[in-house]
Amino acid sequence: MNQPALNPLLITEAVRAALVEDLGRAGDITTLATIPAGKQARLVIAARQNGVVAGLPFAREAFAQIDPSLRFEAVLSDGDRLAPGAVVARVEGEARSILSAERVALNFMGRLSGIASLAATYVAKVAGTKAVIVDTRKTTPGLRAFEKYAVRCGGAQNHRFGLDDAILIKDNHVAVAGGIRPALQAAKRVAGNFVKVEIEVDTLAQLAEVIEEGADIVMLDNMVPADLVKGVAMVAGRMKVEASGGINLETVAAVAATGVDMISVGALTHSVGVLDLGLDIEIA
User: Fold this and answer.
1) Is 103 a catalytic residue?
2) What span, in angstroms and rounded, lies between the C-alpha atoms of 189 and 164?
């Protein structure tokens, strides 16, 4: 699978900050104390469970920043499927350098691979429907670009990246603005030709107002499948329909079967586990 685009400058900066955090004031004192200078080693990064790999560029960068002479070979690409025992990458060179970089490399890879793997599981659950799985802004502060990248590696898609690239009118906006119609009217006055306007509704009565006023996307929040089916029928293709609100792996297939266009899942980034990637070290 081709790697989805991610700005390499962001990777460089994030890895540098992570290494500074890990190495602290004195560096890797354990490795310096126990491993002779000049000792060579080969490190194999291997999967311990099924999943989808993501984060290889971060691992490469971590080893390169610690020691540019290290030789890093990515056996797989971000977005590739993993089975237990699959070799993901190899790195060879100064043992001290490898050991000092390995935790930062694996922290990035484990977290991002966990996200990619969960995204792929959701995507598989809605196969055969038109529904697209999308993420949310419920990301780790400072790591949004990377976590959304991992979502794409897993075959899902990104919702808006931040507050500045789309208008999404939530229930609090509606309450403060004075209702569905005034909120939509105000949003459309400032949206321009290239900014999408989406609005969240909790009831089919609110949806009827949205249909009359018009929007690009309507989010049906916390609705049961029966109401989602009614909502999709009411919209009748006049705008995109997104389902949201506590959707999980047990419920996502039923939601997809209602005919919605998108399903947003905050759990892709806010409740994900780390994919287990193991280390096998061989003395060269």
Assistant:
1) yes
2) 16
